[in-house]
Amino acid sequence: LAKTTQPISMDSYEGQEVNITCSHNNIATNDYITWYQQFPSQGPRFIIQGYKTKVTNEVASLFIPADRKSSTLSLPRVSLSDTAVYYCLVGDIRGTGTASKLTFGTGTRLQVTL
Amino acid sequence: EAQVTQNPRYLITVTGKKLTVTCSQNMNHEYMSWYRQDPGLGLRQIYYSMNVEVTDKGDVPEGYKVSRKEKRNFPLILESPSPNQTSLYFCASSLAPTGAYGYTFGSGTRLTVV
User: Fold this and answer.
1) Which of A34, A42, A104 lies closest to B42 in CB terms?
2) Which of A13, A107, B31, B79 lies at a CB distance of 3.0 to 4.6 Å from B94, suitable for a disulfide?
3) Average of pLDDT values for A60-67?
4) What does the alpha-carbon distance between residue A93 and residue A3 come to, in Å, rounded to a whole number?
């Protein structure tokens, strides 16, 4: 499984765009990149998933460069309610019959203030 | 509403007293998994199940048992709880075994063993 490295914490003001970068230098050809958000005492929530280039949904954008050795989660115009821990996961999701032991790690703690 | 339901939300027990944490999902997901979350250690997988009657160990299975007799239920059993099993536990399910489309997590069970 590809190991991921994220900043431990980040701070932002409300209304700003926040970019959280995840490094995964040994990502495999069949690995996808998935991001989760977790509020205190709640289970993680799926945000976005991608393989290459750019993926956008109603919550965030995910940028993946051509070499796929890193990825950036972009949260536009954050609010106080975006204060949470964000996890980057890398693994093969094709469903080839082997269950994935996706490793969450310790994530990035984002603190949004006024 | 599609969800993963864990019970109980909070539990305080004594060392050695067998307990079961229930997990149920209403999304007809084949894949289910248990995690524990401890400060500074992130989420660590305990056991997972690919389908009915198919279970396997995660990263920290010692002291835990699981069963998957029905597709919707995946209980976590602690035969003889010890204080080092004091933690926040999450159950998760997924349409695909390796996390495609994301995992859905329960709200968590905070267990204290004294």
Assistant:
1) A104
2) B31
3) 96
4) 16
Once rounded to an integer, what is the mean pLDDT over residues B66-89?
97
Q: Which of B83, B98, B94, B112 is nearest to B21 (CA)?
A: B112
Listed residue (A12, A8, A91, A23) closest to B94, CA to CA:
A91
The answer to whether B2 faces chain A, any CB pair under 8 Å, is no
Per DSSP bridges, beta strands B104-105 and B87-94 are antiparallel
DSSP string, chain B: ---EEEE-SEEEE-TT--EEEEEEESS--SEEEEEEEETTTEEEEEEEEEETTEEEE-S--TT-EE--SSSSB--EEESS--GGG-EEEEEEEESSTT-TT--EE---EEEEE-
CA distance A107 to A85: 6
What single letter denotes the amino acid at residue A62? L
Residues of A in contact with B88 (CB under 8 A): 41
Q: Which residues of A13-43 are buried (b: 16+ CB within 10 A; e: fewer)?
A: eeeeebebbbbbeebeeebbbbbbbbeeeeb
Region A40-69 average pLDDT = 93
Chain B closest CA to A12's CA: distance in Å? 22
Q: Write phi, then psi, for A5 (nearest 5 degrees).
A: -130, 125
Which one-letter amino acid corresponds to residue A45?
R
Question: Do residues B96 and B85 lie in contact, with contact meaning Cβ atoms separated by under 8 Å?
Answer: no
The pLDDT of residue A35 is above 90: yes
pLDDT at position A90, please?
Answer: 87
